[in-house]
Design brief:
The protein is an alpha+beta fold and 352 residues long. The protein has three domains: 64 residues, OB fold (Dihydrolipoamide Acetyltransferase, E2P), CATH 2.40.50; 131 residues, Helix Hairpins (Orthogonal Bundle); 95 residues, Elongation Factor Tu (Ef-tu), domain 3 (Beta Barrel). The strands form three sheets. Strands 1-15-12-13-14-11-2 form a seven-stranded antiparallel β-sheet. It has a four-stranded antiparallel β-sheet with strand order 3-10-8-5, with no helix packed on it.
């Protein structure tokens, strides 16, 4: 009787059996590891690396005359990134400085006028005392001639001459008083005008500070150490104040991971819990971190159109709660993680 199976068939069958057995063993090992991991860790792959990425914004408008950075370039705090044509701002600053000099010169003139008026007022006050003494003396003379006239020892003409002189002295006294009061009024007016000029100088100095700020805004510098992102400007481009000119990733602050866990997974999580995670970009490397905060609301609550379950079409969906995890490690490890990278986060479960 001829053999039913050839040698080749037996070899193929044996290899197939071994392969099937290996696959079963691998599946069993994978299943056991998955069950063990599920029992010991809360896992999510809905997590990304986060870091402060801030826009570089112009606070002055004008033509760009120089761009001193390239995409992905590392910059230090204070490094010049962009230069804007500042000639208009410099001219405005010079005009304000000239206005300040004019008002300060005007103030000096007013102060000189006050000094002159004070001397004139002092002279008028002295004249008041002189005329007051003359009036007092002439009143005595008038009283004496009045007695002499009543005793017929003086003529009416003499008495009238004495009275006329007294009237002249009184008028001179009143004129000196008026002159003194007018001088004091002019002093007060000049002092008030000085106050107006001083207020104008203060306003112009504040305006000058503003113009100096505008000039300083034409030099855009890096606010901190970091790496530049996408470059969207070029020399000769006209920009407006408030326009975004680029992006910079802050290298001075910590990096963190935002892991969006299901609401059914966060029961036993606590602040300070140690966390391990892997990045899709580096599957063979494990990173560590610490839970530093939990979101005060689910992610959907912060969405542009949060769900309204009172409309009557409620469908229960498991919500996710963002968990913020501070990444730990030296700078070389942190530099491996880029903003927006996907990571897989494992948080140990608390049993008992």
């Amino acid at each position: 009787m001829k053999a039913k199976y050839t040698v080749t068939d037996r070899i193929i069958t044996r290899i197939t059996g071994w392969l099937a057995g290996a696959i079963v063993v691998c599946l069993a090992a994978w299943g056991a590891y998955t069950v063990w991991e599920y029992y010991h860790y809360e896992y999510t792959n809905d997590a990304q690396v986060q870091e402060y990425v801030n826009p570089v914004i112009s606070r002055a408008g004008g033509f760009i005359v120089a761009v001193r950075f390239e995409e992905n370039q590392f910059v230090h705090r204070g490094d010049t990134l962009l230069l804007i044509d500042n000639r208009e701002y410099v001219i405005q600053q010079a005009q304000t400085e000239a206005s300040i000099q004019r008002e300060e010169a005007r103030l000096q003139v007013l102060e000189s006028n006050v000094h002159t008026l004070e001397k004139r007022a002092a002279s008028d006050k002295a004249q008041i005392n002189v005329h007051k003494a003359r009036v007092w003396k002439q009143e005595l003379e008038n009283e004496r001639y009045g007695k002499l006239y009543r005793e017929e020892s003086a003529t009416l003409q003499q008495l009238e001459e004495v009275q006329a002189t007294l009237d002249v002295y009184k008028n001179a006294y009143l004129s000196a008083v008026d002159s003194y009061e007018a001088a004091m009024a002019r002093i007060n007016e000049t002092e008030a005008e000085k106050g107006v000029v001083k207020a104008e100088i203060a306003r112009l100095k504040a305006l000058l500070d503003r113009h100096k700020l505008d000039v300083s805004y034409t030099v855009i510098t890096a606010p901190y150490d970091g790496r530049m992102g996408r470059r969207i400007v070029e020399v000769g481009q006209m920009i407006d104040a408030g326009e975004v000119l680029g992006f910079i990733v802050n290298n001075e602050t910590d990096k963190w991971v935002v892991a969006n866990y299901k609401e059914t997974q966060i029961e036993h999580m606590r602040l300070g819990d140690r966390v391990t995670f892997t990045a899709d970009a580096y599957p063979g490397k494990t990173f560590t971190g610490t839970i530093i905060s939990f979101s005060p609301a689910t992610g959907s609550s912060f969405s542009l159109l949060p769900p309204d379950n009172s409309t009557g079409n409620f469908v229960k969906i498991v919500q996710r709660v963002p968990v913020r995890i501070k990444v730990e490690g030296d700078r070389s490890e942190l530099d491996l993680l880029k903003v927006g990278m996907n990571v897989n986060v494992y948080i140990p479960k608390r049993h008992g």
